[in-house]
Structure formats: C-alpha cells, structure tokens
Input
Amino acid sequence: MRLTTPILLAALACLPTQWTKDLNVGLEGAMLFGAFGGVVFGLTFGSGFAAVTLTIVAGALSGVVFGWLITRLKVNVFIAGIVLNIFAGAATVYLLRSLFGVKGTLSAPGIPSLPTYRIPLIDGIPVLGPLLSGHTVLTYLSWAIVAGALFAVKHTVLVRHLKAAGEHPAALAAAGGNVQRMRILAQVWCFSLCALAGAQLSIGQLTLFTEGMTNGLGFVALAAVIFCRGRVLLLTLMSVVFGLASAVAIQVNDSVIPPQIAQMLPYLIAFVGLVVLARTSKDGGVRIATPTMES
Amino acid sequence: MSMNTPLKTVPQSKHSEVHSTASFARSLAKRIGPGVFTLAVGLVLAVTLIQAQGYQPLPTILAGLDYAIGDAPSIARTLAWGLPLFVATMGVALAYRSGMFNIGAEGQIYAGAMAAALTGAYIGPMFTGLHLFLCLAVSALTGGAVAAGLGWLRAVWNVDEVLSTLLSNYIIMLFCAYLATAPLRDPARQSGTTKAVHETAMFSELIPQTQLTSALFVVIVLCAATWWLSERSVTGYRWRMTGESSAFAAAVGINVRRSRIGSMTVSGALCGIAGALLVTASQGRFWTEIGTGIGWDAVLLAMIARARPLSAVVWVLVYSVMRSAARGIEQVSTVPSELSLILISGIIIAATARAGLFSRVAELKKILIRSEGK
Amino acid sequence: MPSSGVQDTQPVLELRGITKIFGPVVANKDVDFDLKAGEIHALVGENGAGKTTLMRILYGMYQPDGGTIVMDGRPVGFKKPMDAINHGIGMVHQHFMLVPGFTVAENVTLGAEPRRNGFFDHAAANDSLVEPMKRLGISLDPETVTGTLNVATQQKLEIIKVLYRGAKIIILDEPTAVLTPQETEELFVLLKTLANDGSSVIFISHKLREVFAVADRITVLRNGQTIQTFNAAQTDAASVVAAMTGRTDVNLGRVERTEPTDGTVLEVKGLETGKHGADAALKSISFSVRPGEVLGIAGVEGNGQSTLAETLIGIQPLDAGFIRLRDVELGGLNVAERRSKGLSYVAEDRHLEGIPLNGTVLEGISAGLIRRDSSPVGLGLAFPRTVRHWSTHMIKKYSIKTSGPGAKCSTLSGGNQQKIVMARELEDKPDCIILAQPTRGVDLGAIEFLYNQVAEATAAGCAVVLISADMDEILRLSDRVLVMYGGSIVAEQQTDATSREELGMYMVGAQTMKVGK
Output
C-alpha cells in the first residue's frame, strides 16, 4: 500500500494534462521537488501540516510558471518535461548543499512526519484493517481525489472545458472559453498533486530527503497514465497494481526473484500495454506531442 | 530591386555590394544570435548561482574555465570526458531528423557498454586493433538491435516510440544491473561490476594522465560520417523527408518503414558505440552506474541543436567545457558540479522559449507605441 | 433566388476602413462592408483576398490595426470572440468547431453551459436544443456523440450552436465546400428561413453559382481591398469574376483538350480494400482509362475516393482485384516501383503529402529524381550540381514564384506549392497520373495554368484519373465521369451527356445505374 499513494497521486496529477493534450513527462522532477519542499518547509516550520500546505502552494506556483512557459512562450511541453526531470535532480542537490551543506541524504530530528490515522471500525478487520486503515492524511486524500475526479468527469463544466482545450482548442476558443487558462490550470493541478506525492514520500513514509529519492516512481505513474488513456477508475487500479509491483521489488527475497527484475515489472507491464494498445485501437494508439525540429 | 532601376546599373551594383555585406552580417547575426542569447542566459544563471553561494562569480568561473581549458592536458581531459557524448548525441540527433524521438539513448548506451565489457573480458586477449573493433562492433550491434526493435514497433505496429524508448531505458538498465550483480558479476570485487576487460580491449592514451585516448579518431570519423549520412546523402534525404512528413515520403515513393527502422538502427548503434567507449576508453569494465545521465544529456543536446549534426558538435563541445568547468568550480568552492546541469536546463528553456519571448516583447512594444500615440 | 426579407433600413452592421497587417503582409486594407437586417450578403474573393481575416476581425479573433466596427449605429470593439457573441454575432467556421468526443448537447452548450448548483445540467442542456431545432425544422438526438455524425449534420449542428447563443448575424465561412449539391440546396433553404426571420447572413464563398443562388448582395475582395459591392439581381458572373481576378479573360468554361485515342493505359478490375482511416473501403471497383483521356471521379468526400487514389499508387494495400498499367500488373508493387512503371500521383493534402512544408523547394521538387537512385545503401550525394540546375530550370518553366530552390516551401502560396507538385509529377513523363483534388486552395489564375499543364500532358498521351470534390473541376476537365458512393462506382457518364443535377443524385446514393464491363 505504501508505494501506491505516491504513484496514485502522481498519476492523478498527470491526468488533466493528458486531457489538455499537454502530457507532462516531468512527474519525476515535480515529485522530487515536492519531496524536497516537504522536508525543507517541515524543518523550517516544524509542522507537518505547514509543510504540506506550503509544498502545495509552491507546487501550484511552479505549475503557473510551467503553464506559462508552454502556453505563452510556446515551449514544447515534452522538452519542458524532460528538462524538468534533469533540472530537479540537479537543483535539489545544489539546494541541499547550499541550504544545509549536506551531500546525499538530509536527515534531521527536526523533520516532522505526517501522523497516521486509524479508521475505528475497519481497523479491527483482519485483512482489510491494515490495508485500509492506519495511513497518512495524504493517502486518504488521494482516495478522496479519485472519488472527486469520477464525479467531476461526469458533472462539471470545468472538466468539459479541459477536455475541449485538448481535443479541439479552436472550438473552445470560438465558443468563448479560455484555452490558455485551461492548459495552465491543468499544469497547476499537476504540480500541486506531484508536490503532495513527493511530500508523502519524504515526510509521509520517511522523515528524510535523499538525492533522487523518487527513484523512477514518477515514470511508473507516467506509465500508468499512458496505459489508461484518461479513464479514472482504470488509472486508480493500475496505480495500485504498479504500487504493489514496486513493493514486491523491495520486500521479496533475492532468491525468489531478483530485485531488479521485480522493479522492471511496472515498466514491462506498461510496455506491453503500449504495444497491445497500438495493436487494438483503431486510431493507432497514443501519440505524444513531440516538438518539430524546425524553428 | 534590379527591375525598378535598370538604368542606374553602375552605382546600383556598388550599392548592392554594400547592401549584400550588410545583409550578410544580418543573416550571420540571425544565425548566431540565438546561440549568443542562450549562452548569455547561461552566463547570467551561472553568475547568480555562484554569487548565491557567496563566491566572487567571475574569478570562480575563470578558475573553472582554467580547470577545463587552461592548458593542453586540461583540454585533453575535458575532451576525453566528452567523447562518448559526441557519439551518443550524433545518434540521437540522427533519429530526431527522421522524426523518431529516440529518448532511449540511456538504455542503448547501457546495452552497448555491457556488450563491450563482456566482449572485452570474455573474448581474447587478442590483437588490440581487432579486439577493439570487435568490442565496438558488438556494442553497435547490441544498441542497434534494441533500437531497431523499437523502430520496428513504431514503423509496423505504430507503437509510439517516445514512450516505448522511454520505458525501454528502465527495462534495459535494470536488466544490465541484474547481470552485473548476479550472473556476470566480478567475484573479486564489490557487487555491481563485471570482470575487467583485457588490456587489448582498451584504447591507448594519447596524452598521458589525461584519459584522452585514440578513441578520439574514432569519434571524429563517426561524427563526420553521421553528418554526411544525415545532411548530404540520398539515404539522409529519405530519412529527413520521412521525419518532415511521413505522408509526403510515402506519396513520393520513399519506403517509410525502412527509413524509420534504418534511422533507429543507426541511432541505436551510435548510442551503443558511445557505451562501448565508456568501457574501452576509460572505465575498463561495466558497473551499474557507468553512464548515468549521458543518454539524457545527449537527448537534450540534440534538441538544442535542433538535430543538426554540425550544431550538435558545437553544443557538445560547449557542454563538455561547461561540465568540466563546473567540476573545476566544485574544487575551488562549495558550488556542486550539478551546476552544469542546472545551466543546461536553463539554456534549453531559454532557447526554446526565445521565439515566444521575443514575440511577446514585440507585442508589448507595439501596445506601448500605440498607447503613446493616443 | 434572393430572399425577400430584406428591409431597406439602416444597416445592422458596418465595417468601415478595416486594416489589418501581419508583418510584411497587408491582409486587409481599408475594407468597407455593410449588412442589413434580413439580408444574405455574400463575401467573395480568391484565396488570400482577405475574406477570412476580415471575418475573424468581426468575430473578435483578431484586432484590427485600423478602422471601426459599427453595430446599430454605435461603434463597438471586440477583444475576443465572447464580445462578438454577446453582440449577437455567430460564426460557422469552415473547419467545424465541434469537439468530436462530446455529445451534441455538450457541443451546442460549450462555453455557455446551463448549470445547476454550479454543476453541468444535463437535462437543461438537452432542452436548450429544442427551440433552435424547431426554428430550423430539424431534429437530432442530443445524446449522440458528435464524431459519429456526417458532415452535413455537423454543419447543421454548428448553426444550432450559433442560434443557441442568440446570434442575429450569422457568418458562414465556405460552408458548401463539404456538401453535395442536394445538401447545399438544403442549406440554402435553411439560410433563407433564417433571413426571413430577420437574421442576417454573411456568406463567404468563391463558388459564384452558389453565391448567385442565395445572396441578395455580393461584395468582392481582392488583395485585401474592397473592389465593389453588387446587387445580385443586377449583375452577372462575368462582372464578378472580373472584379475578383482583375482580369477579363479568365476561362471558367471547359478546358481545351485533344481527343483521347484508342487503347487502354490503366485498367482496374474488381478492386477491394479493407477500411483504413475515415474513408470508405472499396467494393469491386472496375474501370479503364484510354491514352489522353481524363477520367473524372466525382463523389461526396468519404465515399472511397481517397482510398481509391491511395490504393492505385500503392500507399494502401488491396485485398482483391488487379491494377494494370500498360499490361504491367501493379498490385504487388510498392509506391516507388509503381512510379517507375509510369504512374504518377498528386496527393489530395498538399501540406501533408504534396510537399515537405518545412523543407526546401529543392527537396520537394527533386523527389522524383532522387527516387531513381537505386544504390542499395544510398550514401551518394542527394543533390549534385545537375539536380540543382534542373530544379532552377523547373522553377522557371512552371513560373513558380519563389526566391530560389533553397526557399522553404511553407513561404510559398498555395498555387505555387501546387506547381512544385505538378512539376515533379509531370516531369516524370508518366503514362498515367492520378490527380486528387489538384486545385484545392489554389487561386483562379494558377488553376488555369495547372489545367493547361494537364491538357498538354494528355495531348502527349498521358491518361489522367481526376478525383475531385469540386463538380466544376470535373465538368471542365474530364471526358468521362464516374460517381462513387459508399466505396462503389454507382454511375458512369460521358461528361457532355450529363448534368450537375444528375451527378448529384448519384452522389447521394439516391440513384444507381448498372456500371461495369
């Protein structure tokens, strides 16, 4: 269950960017910043709540900047995403060194950890108890977001506009909608939730920050998003499956299955899914908006 | 122009000469302008980041540059580090030109490195030239085979190559890591490395103590060959047209599938050779983090160079110097060498945002002028 | 027949001295235009005359660099489409502004969704369609997914959408380009109904027959300037063409050609394909083309014409049947091999298939020469001096307006881009050429030039398969016409023995004749 929450949050983060056809491949980087932000704000204010709130705010602001880059300044979102991943890896190292003078891992007693909550009734049930109860507030929040997303897809104008901005932006613009605002909004959502996903890693499950601690989880989430093509329930299911696969990699004994092979599972599943999708769908599967090489 | 004033031919020609130099200068400025702009952004970023750490920016940068290109051995060291990157960037750029976003360079480099390490360690020792050739050839085949498979999936089954190459990175890297930690690990050493290659599978140093090896010549030949293949040859034309518009290529009788698979294969082969160079020109064995990031560097550099081989060479040179200078800076200060990655990120965003940024500025100017007019 | 609802009063809309400049290009220069209540006012002009720019300014998509928009006597300024919509202006775009994955109700209400408690109100959205549909006398299921509707229905949906937003002024940008003759008639009835209700219609077109069929007044734009406004009842096509082109010698009738000779160049029999993409699959297609003959293939788009073109040239595989060019079986060959056997192909989508849009003129025009490089590896020079000289010569021969072979194709006008394609294909000296929509988006002058090139090729014995959605093109150029419907050939007629109306009946599948040999 543990690795599921960050993957699920990141996948949900990415979902609207898929609707607006600005698939953000920088989940890994955004999560890393989120993890770093959680620790830094946590150390500074000594409170898990403040850490989470400020991380979200910082994430939202980054989302505005990122959205502005890809809309107003017409930076290709795919390039921007890749750069974000590399930038996050380097910038967190730089900041870790300059703010704390630490190399590698930042671990201090001052870093708060998010409290876990037990759900009274369910907690007692044998298998379900440990599965559903005793998690951080962020885990419960991720479940709430799944429910919210399911409702929003059916009943809100906002999701319709997000989808229209991706599927036929000119139609939305001609009808008086604001395509740019929708695209930026999707990125703000993406960065905010990635920030949460990161915070869950650094102050939810552990109380430390390590260089590159997201360790490919962002790409696992991305694989889930690609696999599910905008369908919320399937995405949730896939995130859980990938989360379990990642957990297997850590917990299972080396002699049963080598850890590297277990870690490979989510990528293999996504890869096979990609191939199956291309073979079965009429319009030829997913296509990412790659940049043209002309100026 | 000549049609308007056909009678004044004599002064006109002199005038047009002046005019043409001016327009030449303008076109030169147009061509170099973006590069200057992006480098300026990089410089400003560097100054800010170093200043933020409490060091004098300019002396620090100069110290770094001195470390990178201060004297012949430094230049050789800087170059030696960049050698695999040149080859990998060429490979990625070649695929981009054909419309194939091979962002699986990292995985193909690992595959190539593993192949070279195994060929170097388990075959031979033998005649040096032959052994090296064998290592590079096996790596090229390995990298090429991986990329060709992904290219085939794109060309025939329409499996998006961006996503498939992205996912392939992790699958290959994890698989190599598995090989190096379990079945093929060097029992004499810590976990995660393979056996050292034979001496005959190593390039010899050109300048002692700098790691600059005769692999330099291999790299130069590969870069030149890639340039010819991509920009001048008939095959390059077919690949470029496929990348430009596959529908056009299909309509005029270019075999799109063959172009896609072919360009991916060569791209993967180049990345594989880059991996082989990591082993045969410096490390001497495979270990689990042998090429961390080089594939992504190549992906980014090929993007800034807009997949043009010549500007790719220039950008790799610039980046190698930046990277080396960042190491120099790390030695004289506490600024981490990740500085170079931060700079390159900033530079890419600046380069891709430049057009949008300038048109925004022009718009603002227009509005300003208009409001002043009122 | 003009509508009768025109009131001779103050105009509801006036555009005065509109100027719009894009960089070096003056798209609109001092344009005047006015619109009365209950009027259908046609705006005509060639491609690039500035019609679309003018309408986008009116709809708030562009800001004018000069001039004013006056509505009901008051100057107004539209910063965005929403402002125009709020002033009762609606636009039916040439490329539909409908989200394919949305339902009919979602598309109609997009941008002005009925809400309940802040959430999308499905019931109210469905109800909101009732009133406009009643006005137009049509009926649609609001829950249908838009992408599954046919083109004509999607266009009606666009009009419903405009009415839902309360438009009194309706702009239609080239609305008939995608319609059959019958559907066009239906559209005109709708427009007249609207005009009789007191709405005003701006009808953008370059098809003069349609303009005269529906418009009360006609305003002509050329090179971004207003040339003249005609009363439709008091003028004729020749004067309007003269105003559009600035020339009086434009030939709009049949292109002069030599008679076809006996024999068979291309023979197609029992062609069957599977379904690829949006177009229909082919069902047992058979025909043959004689030397020097132009065989027109008419039909509403989506009835298999694109599939036919792509199957003939070899981009799409065929499941059954054969294609023979001068007794050489082409079925199993790829595109390059078919081309080297003497087949040429002008593809329908110029920007995607005809030229490399971001490539150079040289790269686009010399594709045929480079194809003949048969070396297995292809490491030789792609553009040796001879190829470059040849391309310079071709630019002169086909009077392609460009700065030189190194210019980017995207900087050329549509007509000049199409000349690149024609030069490449005709210089191959083919036995048979397939022309798919060869003059789409090309101005009248260049069309004439291209037609003459085709006529020259047929005089030399080249057989031509002309696939076109433009009925005028078929009637002007072809000797014989086949009509395609649902992937089959439903009619065959000699061009001089048929009429637009008769072909139209076959095109919509209302009638079928026994075809085949």
Q: What stands out?
A: Chain B touches chain A through 53 residues (CB under 8 Å).
